[in-house]
Write a structure and sequence with these properties.
The complex is a heterodimer of chains A (245) and B (563). Chain A has 245 residues and is an alpha/beta fold. Chain A contains 10 helices and 10 strands. Chain A folds into 2 domains: 166 residues, P-loop containing nucleotide triphosphate hydrolases (Rossmann fold); 66 residues, no CATH class. Chain A is 38% helix and 24% strand. Chain B folds into 2 domains: 262 residues, no CATH class; 246 residues, no CATH class. Chain B contains 19 helices and no strands. The chains are: A alpha/beta (245), B mainly alpha (563).
Chain lengths: 245, 563
C-alpha cells in the first residue's frame, strides 16, 4: 500500500532523510518513531506530497506521488502535528471546504460531516469560528476532516498532541477500527506506549536512516534485549539514554 | 527600569540577528532597496521644501508668514499621523500580538510590561515620521541660517512630540479596550477606519482645494492674511512645538526653551498618567482581548439561485477555494479598515475630477480633457497597483500556517493560484472600470478616449492582479504575524516596481499613436499609412505585454511555491 524506495531529502548540506526503504501493507497500523530531528516529519510530508524528495520514490497504493500528486492525495488523509486551520471559517464550513476539495459527494456530505463532528464531540461547535476553538478541538477537527473522504491511507504526525485522555482513547479506538477495516495508517509519534499498544509494526528512524523495523518483539531482538519495554529498546537503539546519562 | 530593558531585549536581539537568519540575504537586498528609496524620498522632500522656503523668503514680509504657516501645518500633520499610527501600533502591541501570552507569563511587573510595550509601539509608530520630517526641519534651518541651537531644539521637540502623540494614542486605546465588550477589541480597527474615512472626507471637503485656482473666491486679502497669521490654541502641544521651533529659528533662546520645557513637562505628565491608567485598566482589557473575537455580522447570507447558478459553473473543488477565499477575507475585521480607506480614496479621486476647472484652462478644452483622460488611465492603474499591493500580493501569504491544507489537498498549485487571481480580478476590474468610466464622464471626454480607456484598463488589470498573485506566491511569508505587511518585503517592493514598469510601458506604447490619432481627428484629416502601422504595431505589442504579464508571474509563482 505504501512503498518508499531510496527516499532521500536534503536541506542544503543537511541530510534529513537518508535512502529510506520501507513497505507498509494494506490495513497495517505502522508506527514511526525516532528522536527529535530524526527525519520523521520530513518523511511524512514527502509521503503526503507536501514536500518533494531529493531522491527516491514514494508509491501510495501503486500511485507515484511525485508523478501523480493529486491522484495520490485523493486517497490520503493527512493529519499534521500542529493544528493550523482557517481561523475565520466555522467548523462545518471547514468540513465543507475539505469535502469539496476531496470530492465527497454533495448529497453524502451533510450526513457524513454531522456524523464525524458528533463522533469527535464537535457538533455543538459546528457553527462557531475555528478561532474560538481550543488546541484540542482544532486537533479533533483536523482528524475529523481527514476522515471525511474515507481515505485508504492515513498519514498522521503526532496525533495525540493537545488531546485530553478521552480524546486520546477515542482516536486510538478509531485508528484501530479503521486499520481493522483495511485502512493503512502511518503514524509518527513520540508517545512510545501508544506506539507499542496500537501499532502492528514499528520503524525507528535515527539521523534519517531506518535503524530498526518490526514488532516490539523484533525490535527487542535488534536491540539485543531479552526484556524491557519499547522505551528501553528505543533508548538503546538511538543511544539517547546514554546521552541523557 | 532593568525589567523594561530586559523585556525590550527580544525585539532588539531579533533585529540584530535578522542578518544571520536564513532570510539574511533577502533582508540585505530589502534593506538596500529601502535605503535607496528612503534616500531618494528624503532628498526629494528636502529639495521641495528648500525651494519653496527660498521662494517664500524672497517675498517681503508675507513670505515669513507663509513659511511659518507651512511649519505649523507640517507639525499638525505629523502629529495627526503620529496619533493615528500610534493607535494602530499600540492596539496591536498591547492587546493582539502573539507573544503577549508568553510576555504575560513571565515574572515581570505588569507596569513594566506595559511600559516596554508602549515604548516599542512608540518606536514603531514614530521612527518613520521622525526620519522623514528631518529634511523639512533641515531646509528651514538652512534657509533661515539657524545655528546648532535650532537643530538641537528641533530634535528634542520632535522626540517629545512623538512621545506625546504615542501617549495620547495609548490612553485612547487603554480606555476603549477596557470599555468595549470582550471579543470586540478587533472591531476597534473597523471603528478607527470609519472615523478616519469620515475625517478625511470632511477635511477634504472643508479645504476645498479647487478654490486655489479661482482667485475671485478670496473676498479680502487682509482677511486671508489675518487667517494665515493665526496661531493654534496655547493648550495644544503642536502650538508649543511650533512656537519652540519658530523661536529657535529666530534665535530667541528664552522663548524656545520655555516652549521646549512645556513639551517635555507634558511628556512627563502624560507618561505618568498612562502608567497610572494602565495600572487600573490594562490587564482587565488585555484579559478581555484574549477571548475569541465576536463576529461583527453573524447573520447567514442566503445563497440566491442566481449566485448558485453562477458558482455552479465552477468545478466543486475550485468553488470551495473561491468560497473559502471570500469568507476568510470578509470575516477578517482588520481588512475592513483598509476597505474603508479605499472607499475614501475613491471618493476623493472622483471628487477631484468633478471639481477640475478644465473650462478655465487656457489650452483648448477638448484637448486638455482628453489629456487628463489619458493620464487618468495611468493613474487608475497605479491606484489598482496600490490596492493590489495591499490585498492581492499578500493573498498567498494570507494562507499562513494553514497552507499545509492546500499542499496536502488533491488540488494543483496552478488551480489554487488561478482561483486567487479570479477572486481578486472580478471585483477589482469592476472597481477600476467604474473609476475610469465615471471620471471620463465627469471630464466629458470623446467616445474614442472612453473606449480606449475602458479597453486599456480591461487589458492591464489581469496583468497587475497576476503580478500580485504570482510574485506573492514566489515570495510568500507564511509565518508573518500580519501577512498584509508582506508588501514591505522584498517581493512586495519588487511587485510594485514591476507593476509600475508594466503600466508605464503600456501607457508609453499607446501615447504616441493615440496622440497622432487624436490630432488627426481634431484636424479632420486621415491617418497616414505609417501612422496607421505604428498604431497597429503598438497595440499588438501592448497585447503581448499584457499577456506576458499574466503568464510569466503565474508560472514563476507556481514553480517557486511548489519548491
Amino acid at each position: 500500500m505504501i512503498e518508499l524506495v531510496n527516499l532521500t531529502k536534503r536541506y542544503g548540506r543537511t541530510l534529513a532523510v537518508d535512502h529510506l526503504n520501507l513497505t507498509v501493507e494494506k490495513g497495517e497500523l505502522f508506527g514511526f518513531i525516532g528522536p527529535n530531528g530524526a527525519g520523521k516529519t520530513t518523511t511524512l510530508r514527502m509521503m503526503a506530497g507536501i514536500l518533494g524528495a531529493t531522491e527516491g520514490t514514494i508509491a501510495i497504493a501503486g500511485i507515484d506521488v511525485a508523478e501523480y500528486p493529486e491522484k495520490a492525495k485523493k486517497i490520503i488523509g493527512f493529519i499534521p502535528d500542529r493544528p493550523f486551520l482557517y481561523e475565520k471559517l466555522t467548523g462545518m464550513e471547514f468540513m465543507g471546504f475539505i469535502g469539496a476539495l476531496y470530492g465527497v459527494a454533495e448529497e453524502d456530505f451533510p450526513v457524513r460531516a454531522e456524523e464525524l463532528l458528533q463522533r469527535f464531540s464537535l457538533y455543538d461547535w459546528g457553527d462557531h469560528l475555528i478561532e474560538s476553538y481550543s488546541h484540542g478541538m482544532k486537533q479533533r477537527l483536523i482528524i475529523a476532516s481527514a476522515l471525511l473522504h474515507d481515505p485508504e491511507i492515513i498519514i498522521v504526525d503526532e496525533p495525540m498532541v493537545g488531546l485530553d485522555p478521552a480524546g486520546i482513547r477515542m482516536v486510538k479506538n478509531i485508528f484501530r477500527g479503521l486499520a481493522d477495516n483495511g485502512v493503512t495508517i502511518f503514524m509518527s509519534t513520540h508517545t512510545l506506549e501508544i506506539a507499542a499498544d496500537l501499532c502492528d509494526r514499528i520503524g525507528i528512524i535515527h539521523r534519517g536512516r531506518m535503524i530498526a523495523l518490526g514488532t516490539t518483539g523484533d525490535l527487542r531482538g535488534t536491540a539485543r534485549l531479552n526484556e524491557g519495554d519499547l522505551e528501553e529498546v528505543f533508548l538503546r537503539l538511538t543511544g539517547s539514554g546514554e546521552e541523557t546519562l | 527600569m532593568k525589567e523594561i530593558t530586559t523585556l525590550l531585549l527580544p525585539r532588539y536581539l531579533s533585529f540584530k540577528n535578522a542578518g544571520i537568519s536564513q532570510d539574511g540575504g533577502n533582508r540585505r537586498v530589502r534593506l538596500l532597496l529601502f535605503t535607496v528609496i528612503g534616500i531618494l524620498f528624503w532628498t526629494g522632500v528636502f529639495i521641495a521644501f528648500y525651494r519653496v522656503l527660498t521662494y517664500f523668503r524672497g517675498i517681503e514680509e508675507f513670505g515669513d508668514i507663509l513659511a511659518h504657516k507651512l511649519l505649523s501645518m507640517v507639525i499638525m500633520t505629523i502629529f495627526s499621523l503620529l496619533v493615528f499610527s500610534g493607535i494602530v501600533a499600540s492596539l496591536s502591541k498591547l492587546y493582539l500580538s502573539r507573544d503577549l501570552i508568553l510576555v504575560h507569563s513571565l515574572p515581570a511587573a505588569r507596569g513594566s510590561i506595559f511600559m516596554a510595550r508602549w515604548l516599542e509601539s512608540t518606536i514603531d509608530s514614530s521612527w518613520m515620521a521622525l526620519f522623514f520630517s528631518m529634511p523639512v526641519f533641515l531646509s528651514y534651518g538652512i534657509v533661515y541660517k539657524a545655528g546648532a541651537f535650532y537643530y538641537l531644539t528641533a530634535g528634542m521637540t520632535m522626540v517629545s512630540l512623538c512621545l506625546i502623540a504615542s501617549a495620547v494614542s495609548v490612553f485612547l486605546v487603554l480606555i476603549t479596550a477596557f470599555i468595549l465588550p470582550a471579543g470586540r477589541i478587533r472591531s476597534l480597527f473597523v471603528l478607527l477606519g470609519l472615523i478616519f474615512v469620515v475625517a478625511l472626507i470632511v477635511a477634504f471637503r472643508l479645504m476645498r482645494p479647487e478654490r486655489l485656482v479661482n482667485p475671485e473666491s478670496f473676498a479680502s486679502l487682509i482677511l486671508y492674511l489675518k487667517e494665515m497669521g493665526t496661531t493654534g490654541s496655547p493648550l495644544l502641544p503642536t502650538t508649543w512645538a511650533f512656537d519652540c521651533l519658530s523661536a529657535a529659528l529666530a534665535n530667541l533662546k528664552g522663548k524656545a526653551l520655555f516652549n521646549l520645557s512645556l513639551c517635555w513637562s507634558c511628556t512627563g505628565a502624560l507618561s505618568y498618567i498612562i502608567g497610572w491608567t494602565a495600572d487600573l485598566v490594562y490587564f482587565g482589557g488585555y484579559t478581555k482581548a484574549q477571548t475569541s473575537s465576536a463576529r461583527l455580522l453573524v447573520h447567514k447570507i442566503a445563497v440566491s439561485s442566481h449566485r448558485r447558478r453562477l458558482f455552479g459553473m465552477i468545478p466543486r473543488p475550485l468553488r470551495a477555494l473561491v468560497v473559502k477565499e471570500v469568507r476568510t477575507f470578509f470575516r477578517d475585521q482588520t481588512q475592513w479598515t483598509q476597505l474603508f480607506l479605499i472607499a475614501a480614496l475613491i471618493v476623493v479621486y472622483l471628487y477631484n475630477f468633478s471639481v477640475l476647472p478644465v473650462e478655465q484652462a487656457k489650452i483648448r478644452t477638448v484637448y486638455i480633457q482628453n489629456i487628463f483622460s489619458f493620464l487618468n488611465m495611468g493613474l487608475a492603474a497605479f491606484v489598482l497597483t496600490a490596492i493590489a499591493a495591499r490585498f492581492v500580493y499578500p493573498a498567498v501569504s494570507c494562507e499562513g500556517e494553514a497552507f499545509w491544507i492546500i499542499r496536502a489537498a488533491p488540488v494543483e498549485l496552478r488551480q489554487f493560484l488561478w482561483v486567487k487571481l479570479f477572486v481578486y480580478y472580478v471585483p477589482l476590474l469592476i472597481l477600476v472600470e467604474l473609476l475610469i468610466v465615471i471620471s471620463n464622464i465627469l471630464l466629458q471626454v470623446t467616445p474614442f478616449m472612453m473606449v480606449l480607456s475602458v479597453v486599456t484598463i480591461f487589458l492591464v488589470t489581469p496583468g497587475i492582479i497576476a503580478l500580485g498573485i504570482g510574485l506573492g506566491a514566489a515570495y510568500p511569508d507564511f509565518h508573518a504575524e500580519n501577512s498584509s505587511q508582506s508588501v514591505t518585503s522584498f517581493g512586495g517592493l519588487f511587485f510594485m516596481l514591476i507593476s509600475a514598469a508594466f503600466i508605464a510601458s503600456v501607457i508609453i506604447l499607446e501615447a504616441g499613436p493615440v496622440y497622432q490619432f487624436f490630432m488627426a481627428d481634431i484636424q479632420g484629416r486621415r491617418l497616414s499609412n505609417l501612422q496607421l502601422g505604428w498604431l497597429v504595431i503598438s497595440f499588438v505589442i501592448v497585447l503581448m505585454i499584457c499577456a506576458l504579464a499574466v503568464i510569466l508571474p503565474m508560472r514563476l509563482g507556481e514553480r517557486r511555491l511548489g519548491n
